């Protein structure tokens, strides 16, 4: 006897061919990947503005955009689960998102004074790591959903 998941999956795949599901997943990954790229460039530009002593009024925007980038990284992790991407990569994306948000929200109080430059560099590297993880995860998902010739 089939359980509910098997019955609902079977009924769904009769309505929507598997190829269409994989194509829509690939489309979603491309959209999310490009959104991460756009946000990444925007965040880096804003970060360097702050680093040069300008546009401090845009820090709240920078924080919201960073949170959005992490949310997109987590969306890629969910798509990665569906595409059966490596579990370690998925876990790394989820964990790294938590690290980036936690560090970003608390970096203002870490190592005040001249030593704060170390925190700024770490923040920059953590952000680059999140962008890199999203690129890796996107590539693995797209490879998993592309039919082998």
Secondary structure layout plus pairing:
Blueprint: H1 4-15, H2 18-51, H3 59-82, H4 87-106, H5 116-145
Helix pairs in contact: 2-3, 2-5, 3-4, 3-5, 4-5
Written overview of the protein:
The protein has 149 residues and is mainly alpha-helical. The chain has a single domain (23-145), classed as Up-down Bundle (Four Helix Bundle (Hemerythrin (Met), subunit A)), CATH 1.20.120. It has helices at 4-15, 18-51, 59-82, 87-106, 116-145. Helix 2 (18-51) runs antiparallel to helix 3 and helix 3 (59-82) runs antiparallel to helix 4.
In short:
The protein has helices at 4-15, 18-51, 59-82, 87-106, 116-145.
**Rg, please?**
19 Å
Name given to the CATH architecture: Up-down Bundle
Structural class: mainly alpha
Q: Tell me, what is the CATH class?
A: Mainly Alpha
Distance between the termini: 35 Å
The count of β-strands is 0
Q: Ranges with pLDDT <50 over ≥5 residues?
A: 3-8
Helical percentage: over 70%
* Cα shape: elongated
**What count of helical segments does DSSP give?**
5
The run of helices and strands is HHHHH
Q: In percent, how much strand structure appears in the residues?
A: under 5%
Chain-averaged pLDDT: 88
CATH overall fold name = Four Helix Bundle (Hemerythrin (Met), subunit A)
Number of domains: 1
């Amino acid at each position: 006897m089939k359980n509910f998941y098997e019955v609902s999956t079977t009924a769904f795949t009769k309505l929507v061919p598997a190829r269409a599901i994989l194509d829509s997943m690939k489309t979603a990954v491309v959209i999310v990947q490009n959104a991460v790229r756009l946000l990444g460039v925007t965040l880096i530009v804003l970060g360097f503005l702050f680093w040069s002593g300008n546009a401090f009024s845009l820090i709240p925007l920078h924080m919201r955009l960073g949170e959005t980038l992490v949310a997109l990284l987590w969306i890629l992790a969910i798509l990665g689960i569906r595409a059966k991407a490596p579990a370690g990569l998925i876990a790394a994306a989820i964990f790294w998102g938590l690290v980036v948000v936690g560090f970003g929200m608390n970096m203002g109080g870490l190592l005040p004074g001249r030593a704060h430059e170390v925190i700024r560099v770490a923040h920059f590297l953590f952000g680059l790591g999140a962008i890199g993880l999203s690129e890796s995860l996107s590539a693995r998902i797209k490879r998993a959903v592309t039919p082998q010739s």
